[in-house]
Design goal:
The structure is a single chain. The chain is an alpha+beta fold. The protein is 13% helix and 32% strand. Strands 25, 26, 27, 28, 29, 30, 31 and 32 form an 8-stranded antiparallel β-sheet that branches. Strands 11-12-13-16-15-14 form a 6-stranded antiparallel barrel. Strands 2-3-4-9-8-7 form a 6-stranded antiparallel barrel. The N and C termini lie far apart (96 Å).
Length: 1017
């Protein structure tokens, strides 16, 4: 019976702590935060999803025995709805509260839903200055009879507490939500949302002087959407919402809109007038719970309920009696020692969860890679050791050493001050907190743990008499006195709330030593009902002066309360990675790939070589190195066929020796010729000079395009199916160091693998890449809407944002830039293609508010395979590179001539990229438009006969005329006997290629799916 009772008490204490933990943080109410992650307005709007706008309230009026929808409203605290005053008024005066019903969480007017809460009204509070004839002060509060139950689908929005200057929101885009009249002039049964842009008062009045000139006041502002998007009848009282740093604020309340003549219905082509919530904050403040007010715009949005599972609140902060290998008492189990490569203690940190520790940022400045953290003891101890003590067996447990995964220093930390000297350290692998000597301390994340008291403080100190680390009680010291002492010592404290000061009692000073130093934790003892005593982290030593030997000198500690939101904001959910298990999965994936490659019907998978793809090239550069991406090529185009000057025009991604991918939007119709340069093509004048006078191996390769296949459903206007497959004339030379294909996730196991890294190369792609993190479609669409960008996503789009939130500027992406994901395959880590930049050149660079948008290449893998040919892996005999030296080169094509233009101003000749063919010692044949240097209007009769000023010396073997088919018996039209010859400037030799029927066909511009050939012959 006693055992059962004990079990019930333990269960009760666990439940009590869990229930306590459900509070949304210490003494605060969270506002403006969505709880539902949906993937997916008002007039011409789009449907809103459950939980998408959890603060929207639907207000109904009771008419007879029927509830009729009347207005919208916004939840602003646990029992208050913000709406328009005219929504609770009739011609006869204020509506009785018994005739009003408020529905929360409703997205459909008639459907029954478990998400919906229905509330009766206790009180109506109308602004005392409201004038029903002029819409002046058209704002009201509805007090509910019972408190709202907050859920995933019902949440309060934040009131606008920032600058109330309307000029700051003019030109900005907010979101309007409501059940107003739709395009058929009937109440919309589905909740709608629409993007609304704010305009200045003068623009609003000019648009309709009759409606706005005598109605608009300084407490109102105007807004409207595009293409007849507006508020309408039934949207009154609803909010106009803006997002600031991830938090939603209500700035406007729908007041009035001009009506169409003789209808009494809204005119959606007109602007809507909104009551400006910011102008009424003083009046609202006296009727609401002030804990929802956000006055610090830098405050981080933290969902406490979402973050609580990061902590084991049932075991944190519990003291355990453990010993060290020498038999001495072990320190409290959350203490971690930061060790250098020389095994010296640099500072100490405090374990707050299995994945995270917290300490001073200055300890980890510039040296985190050379540090490790040791838990459970002062030095490494690898085996458990047990011995007898007072008739009891006690054991020393092995210490735990952990590498540092990431250090997140506070953004305001500077080595020149002591302020904001705090860092959150993520471990490479989790601490084993199932062991009694390694346990996290509690963080004050619940009201029970967040006491705001200063009576029960202690620190970890070294006791000289016993040679052990003990829990030393300390006294709190007045902050003003502490500040004055430290100013004298040369340490300025900018913000008293961010620090705590304590001192060791005078009687303990002589027996206390500051052996631990910087980072020593300041702890609070908190007694839990039926859960025992817990240790809660309240701070840590900034200067390493704990037990400095003088009780008159207070010790300065970081106040954890002031950084709690910042810490939680930067903590994330991690899963322990078992290296052995990860290796098994990676090996199984590789085996599955090899099996699929050999399967019947999967022959085209042999086009992809997993053994050599997806590996970057690391190139030494000075004292460091740079990373080169070998699968990226530059698309070169000729826009002017006369000058034939090539210009960069987007990027391509090599996926095997014969094929590359790019975005379809890079292929502009005005381009006459395209080619590709693969490899490291940064200009090297020394190399180019060497190649001019001899044989050399350039680090790049210029290749011609044989065929471009654009997706048949590509739509440039809507940016749909923005992808193209390129077939090369000759194979990429993958023996070159800087040329290699990216890997393609051709099997499901690869596509489902966990990404280790997500990167996109910048325009200067050989030297810079930007690390990204995925962005869900909902938030992506909203970010575009906030930038007033009419960009529609589809199920084949991928969004991402920079992982580095402090990045000074976005990446400068070219069209066709690849989204690369790092996967583990077998024993290797390789980069796989997962997307192509959907935008044209530098769109993100010029629009820093945009998220990155990519075409999801995984959705087009089957289409790629259908358009790829197996013979693409073999270099065909029809393409022959001739000549290895300067003399041998020209002997292979002795009739080939290069046209140079004399530049008199510089007294030199310049190669015009025009060629002629010698047909006799006096004559040559060439292209008329090239030789005449006139703009070409077509290809008809584009031929010229060139008479030389002096005859060519045809007695030399490298200068000989070609034969002309003058005699009928030698004239032939058989395609199989024809060949074309080009001169490769990149390698200094001629390339002869046989002609087939496809090369005789002109580019098929009528077929959106295929352009062949791309270079008009």
């Amino acid at each position: 019976m006693a055992r059962q009772l004990l079990g019930l008490l333990i269960l009760f204490s666990v439940l009590l702590l869990y229930v306590t933990a459900q509070s949304l943080g210490p003494n605060r109410l969270t506002c403006g935060k969505r709880r539902v992650k949906t993937i997916h307005l008002v007039h011409n709007g789009i449907d809103a999803k459950p939980g998408h706008w959890p603060w929207h309230a639907a207000i109904f009026h009771l008419k007879g025995d029927q509830l009729d929808y009347a207005c919208g409203g916004s939840i602003i605290d646990e029992n208050t709805i913000l709406t328009a005053a005219h929504c609770v008024f009739l011609d006869s005066g204020l509506l009785p509260v018994s005739r009003i019903s408020v529905h929360l969480g409703r997205v459909h007017l008639k459907e029954v839903s478990e998400f919906v809460q229905e509330h009766t009204v206790q009180e109506l509070i109308v602004h005392p200055g409201y004038n029903s004839t002029r819409f002046v002060n058209d704002i009201a509060l509805i007090k509910l009879t019972e408190s709202i139950t907050m859920s995933e689908f019902v949440q309060p929005v934040c009131l606008w507490t920032m600058d109330k200057n309307q000029e700051l929101i003019v030109g900005k885009t907010g979101t309007l939500v409501g059940f107003g009249l739709n395009e058929q002039d009937v109440v919309s049964e589905q909740l709608k949302q629409a993007s609304i842009g704010v305009v200045d008062a003068l623009t609003c009045i000019k648009s309709d002087r009759l409606s706005f000139a005598n109605q608009l006041t300084a407490e109102m502002f105007c807004g409207g959407g595009q293409s007849n998007v507006s508020a309408c009848n039934g949207d009154s009282g609803g909010g106009l919402f803006f997002t600031v740093e991830g938090k939603w604020f209500v700035r406007g309340v729908v007041s009035f809109i001009p009506v169409r003549q003789r209808t009494g219905l809204c005119d959606p082509s007109k602007y809507t007038a909104y009551a400006d919530v910011a102008k009424y904050l003083g009046w609202i403040d006296q009727y609401i719970d002030r804990r929802v007010l956000v006055f610090d715009t830098d405050e981080l949005e933290v969902d406490y309920e979402e973050k609580l599972p990061l902590f084991n609140l049932n075991t944190c902060g519990t003291k355990s009696e453990t010993v060290l290998a020498n038999g001495q008492q072990a320190p409290l189990p959350w203490l971690g020692f930061v060790l250098t490569k020389e095994e010296k203690v640099k500072c100490v940190v405090t374990l707050i969860s299995e994945w995270y520790v917290v300490g001073t940022a200055s300890c980890f400045e510039k040296s985190e890679k050379d540090l490790r953290i040791l838990f459970g003891g002062y030095e490494d101890f690898l085996e458990q050791k047990c011995f007898e003590r007072n008739g009891t067996t006690v054991c020393a447990y092995p210490t735990q050493s952990r590498s540092i995964g990431k250090v997140v220093a506070h953004p305001r930390f500077s080595k020149n001050t002591i302020n904001d000297n705090i860092a959150l350290i993520e471990l490479q692998s989790p601490a084993d907190t199932t062991q009694p000597h390694v346990k996290p301390i509690c963080l004050p994340v619940t009201p029970t743990l967040y006491t705001n008291q200063t009576e029960s403080f202690s620190v970890l100190a070294f006791r000289l008499t016993t040679g052990t680390i003990v829990d030393q009680s300390v006294n709190h010291v007045d902050t003003d006195f502490c500040k004055s002492v430290h100013i004298v010592a040369g340490f300025a404290i900018d913000n008293e709330e961010k620090s705590l000061c304590v001192s060791v009692p005078e009687e303990d000073v002589a027996n206390c030593d500051s052996l631990l130093g910087q980072g020593t934790p300041l702890q609070e003892h908190v007694s839990m009902v039926d859960a025992g005593e817990r240790y809660v982290l309240r701070g840590f030593d900034l200067l390493g002066l704990t037990c400095a030997g003088d009780s008159s000198i207070p010790v300065l500690y970081v106040n954890v309360y002031s950084y709690l939101d910042w810490m939680l904001y930067n903590m994330r959910y991690n899963e322990a990675v078992n290296e052995d298990e990860q290796e098994l999965i990676a090996n199984a994936t590789l085996a599955k790939w090899k099996e699929r490659q050999q399967a019947v019907g999967s022959e085209k998978l042999k086009l992809f070589n997993m053994e050599s793809c997806g590996q970057n090239v690391v190139e030494p550069r000075g004292t460091g190195s740079i990373t080169l991406i070998p699968w990226i090529g530059t698309l070169k185009t000729v826009e002017n066929p006369v000058k034939q000057k090539t210009v960069p025009d987007g990027l391509v991604v090599l996926i095997n020796e014969r094929y590359a991918l790019t975005s379809a939007n890079v292929f502009r119709p005005d381009v006459q010729w395209r080619s590709i340069v693969l490899g490291f093509d940064h200009y090297n004048p020394v190399l180019e000079i060497a190649c001019t006078f001899g044989v050399c191996d350039r680090p790049y390769q210029a290749v011609e395009i044989k065929q471009i296949t654009i997706h048949p459903q590509y739509n440039g206007t809507n940016n749909i199916h923005n992808i193209a497959l390129i077939k090369l004339v000759e194979p990429a030379n993958v023996t070159k160091r800087y040329i290699s294909p990216i890997c393609m996730p051709m099997i499901e196991e690869l596509r489902n693998s966990t990404s280790l890294e997500l990167l996109v190369p910048s325009y200067i792609y050989h030297e810079q890449s930007t690390q990204l993190e995925p962005l869900d479609p909902l938030n992506c669409q909203e970010r575009f809407a906030q930038q007033n960008a009419a960009i529609t996503l589809n199920n084949r789009s991928r969004c991402a944002v920079a992982l580095d939130k402090e990045a000074k500027e976005p990446a400068a992406l070219k069209a066709g830039a690849p989204l690369q994901t790092l996967l583990r395959v077998g024993s290797e880590k390789r980069y796989f293609l997962s997307g192509m930049n959907s935008f044209t050149d530098l769109v993100n660079y010029h629009n820093p508010g945009y998220p990155y948008l990519f075409t999801d290449t995984n959705a087009y893998l089957d289409w790629m395979l259908e358009n790829m040919q197996l013979d693409g892996t073999v270099s065909p005999d029809s393409y022959v590179e001739q000549g290895s030296t300067a003399n041998a080169t020209y002997e292979t094509e002795p009739w080939h001539g290069f046209v140079h233009e004399w530049i008199e101003a510089y007294n030199l000749t310049l190669f015009t990229r025009c060629n002629v063919v010698l047909v006799s010692e006096w004559y040559a044949i060439g292209v008329a438009s090239c030789l005449k240097q006139d703009a070409k209007t077509g290809y008809t009769d584009d031929i010229a006969l060139v008479q030389l000023a002096t005859p060519a010396d045809v007695s030399q073997p490298h200068v000989q005329p070609i034969c002309l088919a003058i005699l009928d018996e030698v004239r032939s039209y058989a395609v199989s006997s024809m060949a074309t010859v080009t001169f490769g400037l990149a390698h200094g030799s001629f390339i002869t290629s046989k002609v087939d029927r496809t090369r005789l066909n002109g580019p098929d511009r009528n077929n959106a799916g295929t352009v062949r050939p791309v270079n008009e012959l």
